[in-house]
Design brief:
- This protein is an alpha/beta fold.
- Helix content is 40%, strand content 14%.
- It is built from twelve helices and twelve strands.
- A nine-stranded mixed β-sheet has the order 10-9-8-7-6-5-4-11-12.
- Strand 5, helix 5 and strand 6 form a beta-alpha-beta unit.
- Helix 1 runs antiparallel to helix 2, helix 1 packs across helix 3 and helix 6 crosses helix 8.
- It is globular.
Length: 399
């Protein structure tokens, strides 16, 4: 094992471990994906010239992501290939939506409306935690505005337009567990991958299995420190570390893709902290670590929380090592979008993804807050136009 990894506290082994592939296996599965893209392209365009141009555009996007996000390994779950947590697993109808959307971006497909990679939908205001970084801080535990009918209407609107992945957040989505089951049961969970973004609050083995049975693809559990006491302090709730661990265990046992979502504050941006977190994530058996940089919004508004150049360099070095170094082939895959945003730009504001808040309003993303119309009453096109008029992403060039 490399010198960067230290023994972390509170580790446990989950059997069987996640299946992480790299090298020849990775490339063979990638080849299946590319073959599928080729078939979809030939079916979608009236001329060979358009087909070739669209495929060149798709290959350019793949190469760009591979280079910046260091995509050299993937996980196989239920026979599906997941190189990133924020991409739907292939081969599948949801992944077909993703491919068609990317082809359409390169060369418009006759009769097709531009779709999205991802829609994040905050389905509840309810949450028991008091997290230091919460971006919905001013809305928490207020009166719910979105009914199940509203949520289903929003989801159908996005699925009709073509959205590859839907992430249900809050608040804490598990606080509306019965509604969550109904929403998944009545939505097309094959046309889009569905995830919940959760603290793990009361995700029992029974609840995890029920969610899997109605089509949930994955669970992203927020974990902000490898040390239980520090995580509980950051979350404002004693015991929140333990319920995160239990949630991962139950989601894995139910056969779902699992990830840990980390927001590394300035004091956490050291090699020691990051590699201890990776060791913990591996011992818990998760497939992914998603890194979200802190932004001065919500509960962090007005605070000096955004990472400086040196801190970002530490995270980028960590991500590169975890993805490329042979010593870490069997460690969780790092999904770190921040490096891509700085190198290329941000695909929020309806370019590839957007956010719908607990009031049902469109935003460029969870961190770029500017209400741009109602997802219940206004069309997606109207929302995207309003986001573009508001300059898209507030921190990066929108691409």
């Amino acid at each position: 094992m490399g010198t960067e990894i230290q023994n972390a506290e509170h580790v446990e082994t989950i059997v069987p471990p996640p299946r992480i592939i790299s090298g020849l296996q990775f490339h063979l599965h990638r080849l299946k994906i590319l073959r599928r893209a080729l078939k979809l392209a030939y079916r979608s365009y009236p001329t060979l010239a358009d087909t070739r141009a669209a495929l060149r555009g798709l290959r350019a996007v793949i190469r760009e992501n591979d280079r910046i996000r260091h995509i050299r390994k993937a996980t196989l779950v239920n026979g599906r290939f997941f190189p990133l947590m924020s991409f739907p697993g292939g081969v599948s109808p949801a992944h077909d939506v993703f491919i068609l959307n990317e082809l359409h971006r390169a060369v418009p497909i006759p009769g097709r409306t531009p779709g999205l990679l991802l829609m994040i939908l905050a389905m509840t205001k309810k949450c028991s935690l008091q997290c230091e970084h919460c971006f919905e801080w001013d809305q928490l535990n207020g009166k719910e505005q979105l009914t199940v009918t509203d949520l289903l209407h929003i989801i159908k609107k996005f699925q009709d337009r073509g959205v590859a992945q839907i992430e249900l957040s809050g608040g804490e989505p598990l606080n509306r567990f019965d509604d969550l089951l109904e929403i998944l049961d009545k939505s097309d969970t094959s046309a889009s991958d569905f995830w919940i973004l959760s603290s793990g609050y009361r995700l029992t083995a029974e609840k995890a299995q029920l969610l899997k049975n109605v089509g949930l693809t994955g669970v992203s559990i927020s974990l902000d420190h490898w040390d239980a006491a520090e995580h509980d302090r950051f979350r404002g709730m004693k015991g929140s570390f333990e319920w995160a661990r239990a949630a991962v265990r139950h989601a894995r046992a139910a056969g779902m893709v699992t990830g840990l979502s980390l927001t590394p504050v300035k004091s956490f941006c050291t090699k020691e902290h990051l590699f201890k977190f990776a060791e913990l994530a591996r011992s818990w058996g998760v497939h992914f670590i998603r890194i979200l940089e802190p932004r001065a919004v919500g509960h962090f508004e007005g605070q000096d929380v955004e990472l400086n150049t040196a801190e970002l360099a530490v995270i980028e070095s960590f991500a590169r090592t975890m993805q490329l170094d042979a010593r870490y082939r069997q460690y969780p895959i790092i999904d770190y979008y921040g490096a891509y945003q700085r190198a290329v730009g941000c695909s929020g504001a309806g370019e590839r993804y957007l956010y719908v808040d607990t009031e049902g309003d469109y935003h460029a993303c969870p961190f770029c807050r500017n209400k741009c119309g109602s997802a219940v009453h206004n069309s997606i096109e109207e929302g995207i136009k309003a986001m573009q008029a508001a300059c898209g992403c507030h921190a990066f060039k929108t691409v």
